[in-house]
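$ run holo --ligand "adenosine monophosphate" --emit tokens
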Amino acid sequence: MTLKLYNTLTRKKETFVPIKKTEIGLYTCGPTVYNFAHIGNLRGFLFYDFTKRVLLFNGFKVKHIMNITDVGHLTSDEDQGEDKMLKGAKREKKTVWEIAEFYTKAFQEDMRKLNFIPPSKLPKATDHIHEQIQLIKTLEKKGFTYSAGGNIYFDASKLTDYGKLARLDLGVKGQARIEKDPNKKNPYDFVLWFTKSKFQDQGMKWKSPFGEGYPGWHLECSAMSLKYLGEQFDIHCGGIDHIPVHHTNEIAQSEAATGKKPWVNYWLHNEFLVLSKGEKMAKSGENFLTLSKLEEKGYTPLDYRYFCLGTHYRKPLMFSFEALDGAKASLKKLFDKVLELKGKGKVNKRYLKQFTLEINDDLNTPRALATMWEVLKDEKLSAGDKYSTLLGFDKVLGLGLKDLKVDKIPQEIIKLAEQRLQARNNKDWKKADELREKITKFGYIVEDTKEGYELKKE
Ligand code: AMP
Ligand code: ZN
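-- output --
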């Protein structure tokens, strides 16, 4: 079935045509590991996972590369601001290397909890300094670089189509928005290699033909995708914030170095998770919510996954605890219903077609969820057919339906409930209440029924 994807490059939904029949090249911009990922970042990363699952669902093999940024990213995506890694190291009085290792592991743990299919490779920028230096040398040879104030810059004016992804206004009006850097020949030029760091305590430095220093942030994605996916590949994903600077500069470097256009055929961008009044989530401040914080408040990572599935990736997703409660309740209802569906059955072809049409329509996950509920409510389908159909859908949704198990009530809880029943039969209400409290403390609810009692997990 045809797969349609909205391509930022053309601003159109297009039919997906892979470069090679054998394997698709997918590159997704990964985290900067100077802090925990917040749930906004995780919305973006979940979108990468849905994209990959839809490709796999369509029968493609996928080579997925996601980078770990552990050097070079300044707090502005341009060449201004503080060094993010250094900021993290200072905050925690650790070295940048310790910070990188700790938060990379934390990110991998988040991915596991959220039921991501792990990327084929998760390469670190600091493990690819040689490749980045080689890329600068190629650009230098082809006349796309210049040195100024100790740094090596990319000369954006050497490309006739610089800024095509973002449709940048390169005229006077557009230029006025950019902070002035006296070293730059043109406002849109950007740093490939820093030697004159404004950060005296910069912990990460490497020897290079351009002097001791470190790479500019955009370079790593070009160098690593070139290494693992080749000079041209199929799909590149990232947040919408990356369109005007980071992805624009990735394209400039890559196409200048190889001379092959387009570097990437399909550019997919996710909208943001927003708070009330459109406020953005930041990695500092009160609204910094992580997956662990959600867990502390009683939500599971899959509650958050379900919450994200409910809004199309190209629409802003408004976060509130009320909305997350809604997702949690729906997921619980789904799990309860699926647990009742036992027995063998067949995938229902009509619903499979409907579901495929929806996810293949630019990953319409909200509509796909609605189809899942339609299946559950269809009285004409047998329990076994419903079960098989939903397991098929879950290859895309990733809610772990296959592994659902009825929670076994531990013997000690059953014993307490039996003692409580006894106390009630003896009209010892005080003891019965004490026992109920004890059961609640263990995370179970006891309800009185005609037959005696029913135990449930909270
Ligand atoms: P960083 O770890 O800061 O490099 O950011 C990682 C990714 O998170 C980037 O691709 C951003 O586009 C994305 N991102 C940041 N804030 C949000 C948000 N509130 N909602 C969705 N994606 C976000
Ligand atoms: Zn990138």
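-- notes --
Residues 411-457 form one domain.
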